[in-house]
Amino acid sequence: MELNLKDKIIVVSSGAKDIDENIVKVLAIEGAIPIIIGRNENDNLKTVEAIKSLGGKCFQTVAELTKPAECESSIKKIIKEFGAIHGLVNNADVNDGVGLEHGNHEAFVAALHKNIVDYYLLTHYALPELKKTKSSVVNINFKTAWVGKGNNAYTTIIDGKNALTREWAVELLKYSIRVNAVIVPVEKIQAINSEIPLENGMATAEDIANTVAFLLSEKSSHTTGQLIHIDGGYYVHPDRAFVNV
Predict the structure, then answer these.
(1) pLDDT tens, position by position, 163-222
(2) Would you say residue 102 lies in a domain?
(3) Three-class SS state of 33
(4) Residue 3 lies inside a defined structural domain of this protein
(5) Which of 94, 145, 158, 222 is 20 to 30 A from 185, alpha carbon to alpha carbon?
(6) Model confidence band, residue 73 (pLDDT cutoffs 50, 70, 90)
(7) CA separation for the pair 27, 221 (Å, rounded)
(8) In total, how many domains does the chain have?
């Protein structure tokens, strides 16, 4: 399917490793120009060079996403250099296991900044350009909100990302900006593969990246406010065993 993403400027936060790296690569294959915002310049540049070696376009800017000023500066730099933003992928995730009994205020607040405040900041600063281009925002999230893992901060954050997705979708309807979340599978894949209805296997990073690219494209023009699970039917299967993962 032709997604019509050619030469579209797509900002991908933390886009240099794992799932986010695959998102950047798929976008480049589709002809888009992904711009990585991440704190590790060496990681950013490795992905940029890998894509350029394949004939694609990709650029990067360095920012510590927990710092509002750096988020704002990076967005302004992208706008100045490329003239527009046609889509935003928020993707940052650090589970540092902050609980209630053995946690503290500083750790809890730090977890918020590492995992959800950056989503707000990047979207807020990019919003004027997103309004001009009637763009799409995709928030990457994890399944922990449905099953819990005993980590108060992290589970709260996962719930919060889903809530932001739905609220932004409603708030930004008037600008024709679509906002969706892609819910990616758990890390403990081997333990649950046999329970997945579709082909007894968890989604690959490329499966996830393909869905993100679709949601960024005009082909998903009537899709907003959705939490889309890329899990082979695991969460709707009647024999699922949440407590075991």
Answers:
(1) 999 999 999 999 999 999 999 875 544 444 445 444 445 668 888 999 999 999 999 999
(2) yes
(3) strand
(4) no
(5) 222
(6) very high
(7) 17
(8) 1
Residue 138: give the domain boundaries.
Answer: 9-244
Burial 30-52 (b: 16+ CB within 10 A, else e): bebbbbbbbbeeebbeebbebbe
Measure the CA–CA gap between 54 and 143, rounded to whole angstroms.
33
Torsion of CA 22, 125, 109, 242, to 10 degrees: -40
Do the beta carbons of residue 157 and residue 115 sit within 8 Å? Answer: yes
| pLDDT beyond 60 at 162 | yes
Q: Per the residue annotation, which of 119, 125, 154, 234 is the catalytic one?
A: 154
- Alpha-carbon gap, residue 80 to 206, rounded angstroms: 31
Residues 216 and 127: their CA atoms lie apart, in Å, by 15
Residue 162 maps to a domain:
yes
CATH number of the domain within which 224 lies: 3.40.50.720
76, 148, 230, 242 from 191: Cα distances, Å: 44, 17, 17, 12
119 an active-site residue? no
Please check whether residue 1 lies inside any domain of the structure.
no
Contact (Cβ atoms closer than 8 angstroms) between residue 168 and residue 224 = no
